[in-house]
Amino acid sequence: MSESPDTRSLVSASSQLNLMEIDTIDDKEFDIPQVDTPPTLESILNEPEEEEEPFILEDTSLMNTESIDAHSCETSSLASSDSGDRTHLKRKRKTLELHTAIHGSVLRHSILKGISAQIVSAADKVDAGLPTAVVNLNQALRLCLGSTATGAEYGAVSALSINHDCTRLLCGFAKGQITMWDLANGKLLRTITDANPPGSAILHVKFTDDPTLAVCNDSGGSVFELAFRRVMGMRTCDSRCLFSGSKGEVCNVEPLHTPPDLKDHPITQYSLLAMASLTKILVIGLKPSLKVWMTFPYGKADPSSIPQLAWQFVPVQKAVNPVLAFCRGVTVHFLLVKKDDSGTIHVIKQRQLQLDCDIISLSWIDSRTLVAVDSGEKLRVVDRPSQEELETIDMAEVQLVYNSSHFKSLATGGNVSQALALVGEKACYQSVCSYAGQIVILGTKSAHVMTLRSWRERVDFLLKQERFVEALSLAWSFHEGTAKAVLGLFGDPAKRKGVVADKMVEILFQYVEHSLKKCPEHGKIQVMEQHFLDVVPVVVDYCLLLQRTDLLFSQLYGRLGENCVARGVFLESLEPYIVSERLGCLNAAVMKDLLAHLQDNNMMDSIGNCLVHMDITSLDIQQVVQMCWTNQLYDAMIYVFNRGINDYINPMEKLFQVITPPLRQGRALTDEQVVMGNKLLVYISCCLAGRAYPLGDIPEDLVSQVKNQVFEFLIGVHSADAGPDEDMYPYIRTLLHFDTREFLNVLALTFEDFKNDKQALEYQQRIVDILLKVMVENSDFTPSQVGCLFTFLARQLAKPDNTLFVNRKLFDQVLEFLCCPDDDSRHTERQQVLLELLQAGGVVQFDEGRLLRLAEKAEFYQICEFLYEQKHQYDKIIDCYLRDPLRKGEVFNYIHNLLSIPGYSSEEKQCVWNKALQHIQELVTLDPAKSADLVVVHFPEEVGPIITQLQVGSCPLSVCRHLGPHPQALLKLSPDLNELHISLMCRFAPRQLTDFLKSSQEYRLEEAIQITKQNQLHEATAYLLEKKGDAHGAFQVLLKTLKVKLCALTEGGGAQQRSGEECEGGAVLRRVEEGLRDIIALCHRSSQSLNPQQREVLWFPLLEAMMSPQKLLKGPDARPTSEALKELTMNVLNRMSSFIPLPAIIQRILQDPVYGKGKLAEIQGLILGMLETFNYEQTLLETTTSLLNHDLHWSLSHLRAVVSKGLHPRQDQCNICLQQYKRRHDSPEQIIVFSCGHLYHCHCLQRKGRSQMDPRLFQAWSCYKCTSSQGGRGGDRGALETGRGRNTSLAQVILGCKSFVHPRVPHTHTDKHTHAHKKVFVETTLDPQQSQSWDQLRSLYRGPSRLAILSEISHCHGNEKSGLLNPAQPGTGSIFHSENFQLKLSPPPLVEE
């Protein structure tokens, strides 16, 4: 019986336990249940599984894949023993298996039933204390170390460690003690009580590779080294602190353990130890001396996340070195430790692994695979290189044991930090451990083992669940070497592939048998077909991947053929593999069955697709050809002829027989015939090029033969079954009629391959002669077809290695045929054909003079352009463009490009320039805008002559209109031309004249005014007069125009208007409004710079003009017109009230006959409106004055209160000489107190240079101490700048401060009489600091300034009057839009005596 490597490792490790017979264990003391015959491992593995049992017990010590029980159950999640919801378990398992379908089940989960039963018994039946047990391979209790008394004294066991040779056991306890036991005889060797500070629990105790050296970690966060000695028969232990918890609490330690086969690794001599504190990772070496190799911080992490450490030797770049995996939270980091040739140790950070869960346990199961347990108690298997999660198993039902009580040190009073206690909530270090590819997990009532499955187990696991497709996919990944966590595949790649291939063949047979067994015997045929459609393609695909077509078409096809539905699905499934050329060779029986099945089901397209990709040598050629021809499978027919019997001519004959009759009779081809013709052209092209149709290549030994056969066939004079009326060369004639251009392209491609082949060159000349004979001597070809032939010939003749001979007379005949002036049909087609012929090199075949004459006569202007360009006669090309009705618009681009682009000589450009100037009138007629662009860019000096040349019609206007406001601003027209432009616009575009006058500045005013007057364009005349400065003249012109419009309005409004005249009357009124708007705007603009008398000269005539027509409107019919005029009059009054005094306006109104007579009611509204406006303005003025007075009074009162405030010095001594001013009696001295509280003697400040005499006899002082502390700028004037705070003496403050400058007196306060005579009143101004104080005082007033309100009022009424009759509606955007706005009068200012 063979064993796996992992099995051997565990057995060898366990066999080193030299277990000896010891005294009988007192069963009564521990109340252990009696077991008559302890179960063996084999009996446990062979136990039959019950339906309701969720787990299978397997001992992981033996990994023999051949002895695995076929009934072993795989648990994707652990079910609770007391859970009765079995359907929930199945649903959960199914979901997880679907999730891990790619990798299958990676881990085998086993429960150690014997150990689990003893755990439950000890917990439920006896009060056995807290002993630690060692169990043998049969899960029978072998040793019981300690006693209940020991447990009561030391507390619970909190940590365990066995050395590498399994002879010693270290136990750490909750109360801080450590014991060492001999596993051979169960004797207590050492009890260590002083290794760590008292009152702290042992969290970790672990042996290193050195059996005399161990490390422990306590709940205080400290790490200690334990060195075991035996001196004079006495066993001792020396303790050394490696890391103190005061520097950061360590909660996990992990020494590097070296496998037996790597004992000579250079890293082992350093005895590495990884420690994880709450903030960082430390890697230290214990030998030969203590040394810290590196520290690595976690970065940001959840405070409740627990640090994890795991060492593993990993092959990296052809070397095996230790890798430390560590994490705290969701990110796993990797550190590679290696020693280079120079002996230097390097710790290299590797690519990190990002998970989506908080990790509470991390272990290596092999060098590529990690097993992590998250905070949700889900076990995750992760492949490190690809960072792919292979499997997830729910471990919630295991009831994982946590070490929280030890981390909180509850047994010693809980004297731990809050951070460590928080981390301990998730601590399970002693409950999950890994060894030799196994993960052992301790639950509260059971012990579990997770081991990697072998590759066979993973495949068989899927097969047991009838997941054949997934099993095949997983097996193929093993075959290709892409699977993860592979176990059990050994040897070289070829041997491994062979083993996996045999397993896949076995799976394929099982899959086929299962599909036949599960096929529904009754029901719809579609259901049965769908059943096999899910199976057969998978079987075919994997047989092809394994290159086992023999298996596919012999055994598997034979087995599937027993079911007629499966047989049909199998045959139909072969098509995509045949078409993709994955399956090229079928045996005769399968090919025969395939064609028969497809033909019976009328799947002819599938037959065609398959035939052209298969080896058909074993078929009945005649039968297949007949079938293809009958079902129009032309590609397949050609392929069968070519590959089956090497016949390349018969397919062409059959196709010609179909398309020749309708072409000969002049009938249109059907779609099917067109398809056949196109296939024929492609087939001929392939044969002449040496390629097989429809794919592949002709065998090299047949290429030359096929070409000769095809040429001989095409140039045949008559067909095999020719009739008496058949024309010569029927095949070439047919192809020319079918598609001349494509057939000639086929010949051109063929001729490209002819180089030194003499026979091929003879065929080439012969075909050309036949083409000329067929097309030139017959009139049934169109000019386009004839042109295609000669274009083809011209291209062939233009080649440098040309060997063809063509009579030039034929080209002359073609030229006369194409340039026939009497034939107007197909003019564009004939010109295009001739142009292509010339561009292909045919120009050398013609006499250019004759060709040019014929082209001009036939109006082939593109041909003329081509010939002129060859001769560099570019000026004549302009005539060609202008004569060609289809290309006239392109002449502008041609002229511009030729004159702008370099590469042409100056003589050529001059000729084009002269020709363009000669045709300028025609160009302007064609497009004035583009003509103007040409003139601006290329003819700026010829504008005058051009305008003179265009003095007919509106052509000059068109050019000038685009020259004047030209966007490029490259041309400045002379005043004469601008005036000519104005004159032309007066005649042809009067509505655009005013806008032009506003945009242009190049004309003379007097001449322009005369022109507009002559043409009676009053609006333009008024604009020019105003621009000249004659506002009155402009006013008179507009007033005259307005009077004319008013006269028309009164004449129309005074009579009875009919319905047809109402629209005309409205148009007249709108013209009056427009004219009035223009003249009011003129008066408003002009009144700004006129005196009152001049303003009246403008406004009163306008008012009279508006008021005088109203007396002519009488009767009820004229009332609408009269009301409209009165409204317009009110508008005039509103606008003129800003410039004319109201009394003058009222006097003029009362003098008017319309308003001066009759009752006062007629002008009551007007008078009341003017009075309301007066009242509004009076109220506004009074309010403004009140606000100004109030603001001024408030500001002065506030400033007075500030400057009247007394100053209190901080101390009674001078801040320079440090002497109290009252103790100096030698001479009267003045003192200066600043607003900052500092006090100085006057002469001390003068000595320090802190005074400066103002030009207005005002002495300025600055605080010495404050200015020194702000940069030490001494008495610089910059100390008085804005932002200095309160460093300036109050003697300098004009309105906001005052100074106390008085002679020294024995009291701190001076009376009025003492300093009254010292006051000096001088004219002062605000310095920058005082200006800042003033701004701060103003900012104390919250809300918008009332002065700002008044400014808005003045702006609103200055720019946009509300009107005499509507003073309550100010301009748009005013503050008066607020409904709550009120002007409140302030009280009169306070006056103080």
Can you characterise this structure?
One of its GO terms (molecular function) is zinc ion binding. The protein has 1393 residues and is an alpha+beta fold. The protein contains 53 helices and 32 strands. The strands form nine sheets. Strands 16, 17, 18, 19 and 20 form a five-stranded antiparallel sheet that branches. It has a four-stranded antiparallel sheet with strand order 1-27-26-25. Strand 4 and strand 5 (168-173) form a beta hairpin. Helix 11 runs antiparallel to helix 13, helix 20 (650-665) packs across helix 23 (730-738) and helix 24 (740-752) packs parallel to helix 26 (783-797). The radius of gyration is 57 Å and the shape is flat.
Attribute tags:
alpha+beta; 53 helices; 1393 residues; four-stranded antiparallel β-sheet; five-stranded antiparallel β-sheet; disordered C terminus; 47% helix
Could you outline the blueprint of secondary structure elements for this entry?
Blueprint: H1 5-15, H2 27-30, H3 41-45, H4 86-99, E1 107-111, H5 113-124, E2 132-135, E3 141-145, H6 148-154, E4 157-162, E5 168-173, E6 178-182, E7 187-192, E8 202-207, E9 213-218, E10 223-231, E11 234-243, E12 250-255, E13 272-277, E14 280-285, E15 291-297, E16 308-316, E17 319-327, E18 331-339, E19 345-349, E20 353-354, E21 359-364, E22 369-374, E23 378-383, E24 388-394, H7 404-407, H8 418-424, E25 432-435, E26 438-442, E27 447-452, H9 455-464, H10 468-480, H11 493-518, H12 525-533, H13 536-545, H14 549-560, H15 564-579, H16 588-600, H17 604-611, H18 621-630, H19 634-645, H20 650-665, H21 671-689, H22 700-714, H23 730-738, H24 740-752, H25 758-776, H26 783-797, H27 808-818, H28 827-839, H29 848-857, H30 861-871, H31 874-883, H32 891-900, H33 906-918, H34 920-926, H35 928-938, H36 943-949, H37 955-963, H38 975-988, H39 993-999, H40 1005-1014, H41 1018-1028, H42 1031-1054, H43 1059-1087, H44 1092-1107, H45 1119-1136, H46 1142-1151, H47 1153-1156, H48 1161-1203, E28 1230-1233, E29 1239-1241, H49 1242-1247, E30 1251-1253, E31 1259-1261, ...
Antiparallel strand pairs: 1-27, 2-3, 4-5, 5-6, 6-7, 8-9, 9-10, 10-11, 12-13, 13-14, 14-15, 16-17, 17-18, 18-19, 18-20, 21-22, 22-23, 23-24, 25-26, 26-27, 28-29, 28-32, 30-31
Helix pairs in contact: 9-10, 10-11, 11-13, 12-15, 13-15, 17-19, 18-19, 20-21, 20-23, 21-22, 21-24, 23-24, 24-26, 25-26, 26-27, 26-28, 29-30, 30-31, 31-33, 32-35, 34-35, 35-37, 37-38, 38-40, 40-41, 41-42, 42-43, 42-44, 43-44, 43-45, 44-45
